[in-house]
Structures are given as C-alpha cells and as structure tokens.
Amino acid sequence: MPLDRAHILDWAKTRDDRFGNQIMLCKNHHGLHGKTISTQDLRVIKAKLAFRQRRYNEHALAMLRLHAILRMPRLVLRVDNPNLRATVDPLARDGYYRFGGYEIAEDRISVIEQWELTTNGRFFTWAWRESGDTLKIPTESKRCRNAA
Fold first, then answer.
1. φ and ψ at residue 35, rounded to 5 degrees
2. What are phi and psi of 134, to 5 degrees?
3. Per-residue pLDDT of the chain in tens (148 residues, 90 and over written 9)
4. Which stretches does DSSP call E strand in the chain?
5. Pair 116, 74: CB distance under 8 Å
6. How far apart are CA 126 and CA 85, in angstroms?
7. Which of 34, 90, 95, 140 gives the lowest tally of CB atoms within 10 Å of its CB?
C-alpha cells in the first residue's frame, strides 16, 4: 500500500513543513487523522518509529523519558560535554528542543548551554506520559503491517 506524507499539525493552519511535523501514513490512516487518530497519537507513533529505526540513541531516549516522567521543561548541558551535545543535536534538528541561551557555571570556569523543550517536545512528552507507553511498537493493523 503506498504511503502519504502527512502533517501532524495541519499545514494549512501552521505552514510548518519541518521534519518534526511530518509523518508517513498509509491512505487509510491518513484519512483517519482528526477523526479516530489524534494529533497526540501521531506524535507518539512518530517518536516510536524514530526509536525503532534508531534515529536517536539511548541517551536521547533517556532524556525524553526524564522529561515525560519528571515534566522538566529545560535541560542544562555543559558545553564541554560532546556526548550530551551529540545527543541533543538530532532532537533539536527534529524540533523537540530549542536553544535557550548560555550561562556561566558555578565554578566560573565552564559555560553551560540551556536547552528547552519546544511545543512539539512538550506535546510529545505529555502524550507519551499519558499513554503509559514505554516506547514499545504497537502491532500494526493487517492492512498496514508491511508499511511500517
């Protein structure tokens, strides 16, 4: 079954064509968006697919899990930690985080970057928390089994 490019938030209203607002759906599920499939459902499905396809590493999963459980809106990273930066960059590129500014650390030697969840990031972590899901991929319908 061919796939359609769908927008999680209606493109006609938002004009948001970034990766974080797009998902590939079969025609059947594309038609159900807004009827029986909610925007929050699509956000969770998109994130599950990203983890299933290893778009993000385990550290990114852990960071999003912390946001979902603790409801933390911000993340503080030391600039000199390349591992954390490598984790946050793909999430920022996909629209889940945005840069919030610099500050001087308490030791007055290092610089700290502040990153905060975007609206998409907050909606995603909210939807994930409310679903009670642990990012296990749900069984697809028979019509769409081979599409994902």
1. -105, -70
2. -110, 30
3. 789 899 988 888 989 888 878 899 988 888 888 888 888 788 878 877 777 777 777 778 778 877 877 777 776 766 667 777 778 888 888 888 888 888 887 777 777 788 888 887 887 777 777 766 664 433 344 444 433 3
4. 3-7, 22-26, 74-78, 97-104, 111-117
5. yes
6. 24
7. 34
pTM: 0.64
One-letter identity of residue 12: A
Length of the chain counted residue by residue: 148
Helix (H, G, I), strand (E, B), or coil: what is residue 95? coil
Distance of alpha carbon 6 from alpha carbon 29, whole angstroms: 10
CA 83 vs. chain centroid, Å, equals 19
